[in-house]
Amino acid sequence: SSELTQDPAVSVALGQTVRITCHGDILSKYYATWYQQKPGQAPLLVIYGDNSRPSGIPDRFSGSTSGNTGSLTITGAQAEDEADYYCSSRDNSDHHLLFGGGTKLTVL
Amino acid sequence: EVQLVESGGGLVQSGGSLRISCEVSGFTLSNYWMTRVRQAPGKGLEWVANIKRDGSEKYYVDSVKGRFTISRDSAKNSLYLQMNSLRPEDTAVYYCARGLGTTITVDYWGQGTLVTVSS
């Protein structure tokens, strides 16, 4: 079955740019979806489709795909961006969802 | 305003059963795929099941097939997950989530309900 792989942890200096990546063969077929999760809270959708942001998500969040890798970029990271980030995609069956293992982002 | 309010979680013994509910508002349940995702303590997100807009199709992760049943009642604006033959490894926060448009991609999430299975 398909898998999505993320780095467990990434850090970024306040105000700098960080890229969080997600690897999986299925991403050559489907876009990655990205969620932010802060401690004790439900996940929040931040990026979907071809770099679309839901209403209320700051434009410092952007998404991209290259080959089998999806990326979430935060340009000018803020302290409030410190959170776990999960990528997601449909799998080959088209009806099951996959999640990456998550990346813990620390803003220094 | 879209809202998903979950209830029904709790402590259950291994082998037992539990039904968790998710009452929605701010949208018409029958227009969206609905999904259940769980998160074990300190772990990542795991897709559990989803149900098509009209309830005609249901899909499950292999580890819960034959034990869990997802259902919906549009008249009550509610989504249900019946969990039978529970195991300690089913211990998790269970989230109710709505599909984005006509897709299974999740946009809105409930606050989650904790299910603890004791051995």
In percent, how much strand structure appears in the residues of chain B?
over 45%
Mean pLDDT over the residues of chain B: 96
Shape, principal axes of CA atoms of chain B: globular
Q: Can you write the helix and strand succession of chain A as a string?
A: EEEEEEEEEE
How many angstroms separate the termini of chain B? 40 Å
What is the structural class of chain B? Answer: mainly beta
Treating each run of at least 4 consecutive H or I residues as one helix, how many helices of chain A?
A: 0
State Rg of chain B.
13 Å
Tell me, rounded to a whole number, the average pLDDT of chain A.
96
The count of helical stretches of chain B stands at 0
The rounded distance between the terminal residues' Cα atoms of chain A is: 37 Å
Major β-sheet annotation of chain B: 7 strands, mixed
Explain what the structure shows.
The complex is a heterodimer of chains A (108) and B (119). In chain A, strands 2, 4, 5, 8, 9 and 10 form a six-stranded mixed beta sheet that branches. Chain A has a four-stranded antiparallel beta sheet with strand order 1-3-7-6, with no helix packed on it. In chain A, a hairpin with a 6-residue loop joins strand 8 and strand 9. Chain A is globular, with a radius of gyration of 13 Å. Helices cover 0% and strands 45% of the residues of chain A. Chain A has 108 residues and is mostly beta strands. With 119 residues, chain B is mainly beta. Chain B is built from no helices and eleven strands. In chain B, the strands form two sheets. In chain B, strands 2, 4, 5, 6, 9, 10 and 11 form a seven-stranded mixed beta sheet that branches. At the A-B interface, strand 4, strand 8 and strand 9 of A face strand 5 and strand 10 of B.
